[in-house]
Specification:
It is a single chain. The chain is of the alpha+beta class. 16% of the residues lie in helices and 34% in strands. It has 13 helices and 45 strands. Helix 8 (454-470) runs parallel beside helix 10 (498-513). The protein is globular and about 85 Å long. The protein starts with a helix and ends with a strand. The relative contact order is 0.08. The model is unreliable at 1-24 and 422-439 (pLDDT under 50).
Amino acid sequence: MMKKILLALFLVGFTMSSSVTSAQNKITFGENNRIVFLKNERVRVDFNLNDGYFHLSNARGEKIFEDAYFQANGLQSKDTCRARTWTVSDVRDQTGAGKTLTVKIAFAGYADILWSVTLYENESYFIFDMGIVNDQPKPYRLMSFYPVACGKVYAGKDTKENYRVLDGNGGGSPTWVTNNDRLQSFNNLLIKFGPLSQPNILVAGGVSYHEFEKFVSVTRREKNFRFQLYAEDPVGRLIDAGQTYKPNEKFYLNFDNRNPFEAMEQYAFVLRKEQDINLNYYDFISECLWYAAFYNIDAGREKFNNSKGAVEEMDNAVKSGITNYTKVAVRLVPDAYTEDNQQGWWDDKHWGMHNEPQSTDLPHYTEPYLTTESWCKAVIEKGGIPFTYMQTGRRSEDFVKLHPDWMLFNDPYKPYTGNKRMTMETSYPSIFSESYAGHWWTDRKLWGYDFTDTAFVRHMQQVYAHLKKAGIKGIFYDYPENTGWAYEGGFDDPYATTAYAYRQIFKLAVDGIGKDVLLQERNVVRGSDVTLGLVSSQRVWGDTDKITPEMVSRCGLRWYKNRVVINYDMDAKDPEDVLPEGSVDGLRSLFTMSYVTSGRFLLARSFAQMSKEQLYDLSRTFPYHTTAKSARPVDAFDEDVIFPRVYDFEVNPDWHQLTFYNYYDSEHTAPTAIDVALGKSLNEGGLELDADRQYYVYDFWNDAFVGLFDGTDRLTQTLRTGESRMMSVHAKKNHPQFISTDRHIMQGMLELEDVKWNEKDKTLSGVAAVVKNDPFEIVIAGNGYKTISARTARGKAEIKDIGNGLIKLTLKNTENQKIKWTVKFTR
């Protein structure tokens, strides 16, 4: 109803020349001397109705953005126009309560532009949106729009002082913290400069994605920045004559930030709300049959990336004992690279006709499991989770010949023409190569399926109905940016943008299988977040079975999005392919940094081919937590840091999980001292702990007490070559407290519950999730108290003095159970 009222006001040329204010929701607005303003207690926007410029100011009245303007296609708010009018409306949505200022720029003989800016109560960020009123007698196609374009940002400031910028690229596009003077990024970015004690921090980016990708660009000058926040699509959105187009394509901008970590995390949570993301988590291990079969070392076993092998691998998982610690997903990878293949058909018949010789000699569906339902049922009955694989929009020529009208342009042999339009791909063009410009498996470069074609959509609905009935819980989409990003259009839906059609690929799966389906996007070229809200994980690297410092850093520098809006995936990991070669530290580093910086773990070997030691170390990292949070790379903005080495996960203000990462590469092959200032601010690369308290530090993998430190101390550790060290940091209390466990690298966050001190009875108690026949050790600091006894509701409890005022409580049980334990103390 509100939208209809606003439109009616616009159509009659609504203007407001007198000053009007409102204090509802602590937000005021009005017009004075043709300057329209909207403000809350922290920020303000002023729009000049005379010249079309606007300013964004902070609570002190400083103009952070001066003489900014907005733009749609080739017209800007500062251009000569017929009229500039405005309205303000109340907003109450998933993000909060506030007000929206909407400005209309009416042009003579051309479509009109709508521009909206929303302020929320007590929040310092702006939310922008735009739209088009096509009051002309012919259709209009919106190709790009810029809610904020400004050549005077932080005018007069010394922009070079401690200048750092973090890009917001997703997928396989690189992510770095740099001091580049010019940066163009997918999705979002952060600028930080000025005194370390109180820097200027700006965060901007897209917060909703439906029909357009979002981009940000910044150019640093000596005394200001040039800045653009915009959306663009290679096909654009058709708007019929007489129609108003008001998309849900929103942008975020905030320059009132305390530190870079909280700033990016606030952005991500607004993104999560605006895009209505209810993220599905991979708290379990996934095994990739392609890798496991390719690296098969069992001479008596055929390559097993087929339906029979999927069931056998679930048996191997159970036999290995790993299922005592976590659930296991088995991913069948039915790929083939012949002209006729499974793609497009996606049915049992064709999955049973083809194979890919590197991973299976038999067809991907083979006896006794010739249907999706049969192998899925067998995996599920054994406690597993069945995943499958598609090559997104890749052609199968027999399918194309049967359904030529389901292809883009309704032409089965329409080739790519001209250069591929990849708007603002990234500031790092080296990742792109000619091999990704077309379908890499053929020299024909032909367009594929039209995911807006009504008949093809019905076909896909049938495909997903079959997979849902069969029990499929997850799908990996390979080569989507090559086969699904239709930058030339050719859609049956005349209103579809390229971004909309690309999202449709994944939306059809969510609609067909259900919101709980786990979809993975292997987007290793475009760094776009356009699929957020549909996909559960996004690849950050090409095909690999190892881990590298850059890979870890690429995920780590996206900490604010990881497990919040997406689970980042570094592809498969082989416990045999570690550095230093064959080392325990390399193995544990692989497992640890996968847990700390990514959102899922894909195993590249059969469980049957893993040693007991490898399985044990792997079990210490499962399950993955499902909290909407990841460890902060606290040294990321420090000078000369390329790959962060210090990661901090705050469980609560009194408990941090701190990771030191001595990455191994050709230039770093020796033990290294890594340190962090416990009490320094986050802006200075510290942990910002309480300077007036003391903190216990306990090393998980080395099972060693590091020490009791003052909040003002600097914690320094010398790590072995290739070692990752996970340490639990607990503020000291005035009574006994637990400070670590040996069950999980989060040292109690997941496996302990309801831990509490009873002052009257002098007991420390809790509930532990004990794995059968695996002794569960809890390290307890007595803090001046002495232990008397320990007891448990089930199994056995033993206590042992380990020095330094610490004891170890060991729980043993023959079943997987949650067990209540109690330790009694005396003064």
